[in-house]
Amino acid sequence: MMAMLGLAAAAPVRAAGPGHYLFMFGGDQAGKGKDFLAVIDADPASPGYGRLLTSVATDQTSVRPHHTEYEMPASGMLFANDHDANRSFIFDLRDPLHPRVETSFTDMAGFSMAHSFVRLPNGHVLASFQQAGSGVAMAGMPGMMGHAKSGGLVEIDDAGKVVRAVANADPAHPGMPVLPYSLAVLPAIDRVLVTNSPMQRDYLLQSVTYQVFRLSDLKLLGTWPLDPGPSLSGHIGPEEARLGPDGAVYVQTLSCGLQRVTGMDTAKPAAVLVHQFPGSYCGVPTIAGHYLLQSVEGIGGFIVLDIANGAKPVEASRLVIDPGFRSHWTAWDRATNRVVVTSGQAGDRMYLLMLDPKTGSLTIDQTFRDIDGKPGFSFASRAWPHGWTGEGKPHGAVFSR
């Protein structure tokens, strides 16, 4: 275990001016403490830039703290989940220095194991639930999960109430494993694209499709295959879906493929593998302008693609943080032109990266420093403001608006 950072971390530090913040959702690396949300000073002009300001604990013992929303919603109510605990939280962050847990939920509308949360034009969340049926009895026991072959989508308001829900099992393909993972909401064409990829091992090699729903009534319009590509494996584990500047949806796969999906408003959408990143494990991507930033664990860092011509992306740059850095999460901050990246590995650091909009080059923000004086924010054992001391396990992170 890395050295203690000391009790000084517990002392609140007030950001200068109106404040700009980074919210990180994580838990106890040892799985004994509670999931929590930390608030970090993300204002480059602040003397406390990079310092921990405060934190708030949930009542959930950490199992697998996972996704938050990818962008901070206008309402200030942020969704986050501990996936293997089958528990999701809504944090009230309207007063960033006094965060609180508004409510939580487990099973919803006959579905369990929530994964991703994306905002709709009406301000509600559309969430992907991996499984049909209840996951409450199996929470915390990952080996017993993953046997359902389908799940569903649920629209949820900021109070945690169900607005509408739909199953994603496709009658045209009975018995096909379709486990909802991520979503891209496309209001301009009245569509939602959903990727199907399991969080557990069951059906990893079979749940390799995407689905298109009509946004207005959540009617399933069809299920389509992704493109295996020359390696015959570029379709395995279709995870994050992102809307590109050209109107196409770009899907990152766990197997480090990048799929470009077009024609979602037609009867025959099509997916083409347009790039293959090195390695066999890739995580959350971010699109900023005409650049796609991809976490690539195989290089211990990130690769930036120029997708100005989406059919033929070109590598613009790459950044190796450390060969052992398990790069995973990314989220974009329009206000400061920075990207937050986390790995979730024991004792790792969270970094802010700067993206040059002219060249696509990526560099570590050397001025974002923790109390140990090093670039990045450390999750080594420290005293956290919510009254717990231990090694943090970070995952989802998002900037304030």
Describe this structure in words.
The protein has strands at 21-28, 34-41, 52-61, 65-68, 77-82, 87-92, 100-105, 111-119, 125-132, 152-156, 162-167, 180-186, 191-196, 209-214, 219-225, 238-243, 249-253, 257-262, 270-276, 282-288, 291-296, 301-306, 314-320, 329-333, 338-342, 349-355, 362-364, 377-378, 382-383, 389-390, 392-399. With 401 residues, it is mostly beta strands. A hairpin with a 5-residue loop joins strand 8 (111-119) and strand 9. It is globular. The strands form eight sheets. Strands 24, 25, 26, 27 and 28 form a five-stranded antiparallel beta sheet that branches. Strands 3-2-1-31 form a four-stranded antiparallel beta sheet, with no helix packed on it. The relative contact order is 0.15.
What would the average pLDDT be, to the nearest integer? 92
What share of the residues does DSSP label as strand, in percent?
A: over 45%
The radius of gyration is: 20 Å
- Class from helix and strand fractions: mainly beta
Subunit organisation of the chains? single chain
Instruction: Give the distance, in angstroms, between the N- and C-terminal Cα atoms.
Output: 35 Å
Number of helices: 0
Number of strands: 31
Q: Shape, please?
A: globular
Largest beta-sheet characterization: 5 strands, antiparallel
Percent helix: under 10%
What ranges have pLDDT less than 50 throughout 5 or more consecutive residues?
Answer: 1-17
